[in-house]
C-alpha cells in the first residue's frame, strides 16, 4: 500500500491510499480518481515526504499519538467531515449491494431505510434513469478506507 498526497486543479489537497504506484497510474488513466472535496477528475500527486520507519521508529511512534495527514484543516473540509460523520451515524452501510438494495426498496420489495454504499457508474446511471432517487457522496465510507 502507498499513500499519496493529491491535489486538484481547484487547489484542494487530500490524501488517498493505493495498492501500488502502478494501481494509482491505472486508476488515474481510467478517470477513477477524483477530488474528495469538489469531485474534479483533474487530479495529480503533490510533493510529499515518504514515511519510513525502523524498528526504533515504530517503538517511538507508538508512544506518541498520530495525527492523520488527511485531518480536516479548512472550513469546507471540516464541514465535509461533519456531513460524513452524520451520514455514517444515521444510515446503514450496505457496501457493493447499494444498487440492488436501493432498487428493492424503491420497488417495495424491502422496507425503506436510509442506506449508503458503493455502486459502479453504470449501476448508478440505471438507478437515476429508472427514477430511483440517489445522490453521490463526496467521500469514501469509513469502512472502505480503514
How many separate helices? 6
Strand percentage lies at 15-25%
Helix content: 25-40%
Q: Cα-atom Rg, whole angstroms?
A: 18 Å
Low-confidence stretches: none
Shape call? globular
Find the count of extended strands (DSSP E, 2+ residues): 5
Helix and strand pattern: EEHEHHEHEHH
User: What is the SS-derived class?
Assistant: alpha+beta
Main β-sheet description: 3 strands, antiparallel
Q: Give the end-to-end Cα distance, rounded to a whole number of Å.
A: 12 Å
The main sheet orders its strands as 2-1-3
Mean model confidence by pLDDT: 82
Can you give a write-up of this model?
- Helix content is 38%, strand content 16%.
- The chain has six helices and five strands, in the order ββαβααβαβαα.
- The strands form two sheets. The chain has a three-stranded antiparallel beta sheet with strand order 2-1-3. A two-stranded parallel sheet has the order 4-5.
- The longest helix has 16 residues, at 75-90.
- The radius of gyration is 18 Å and the shape is globular.
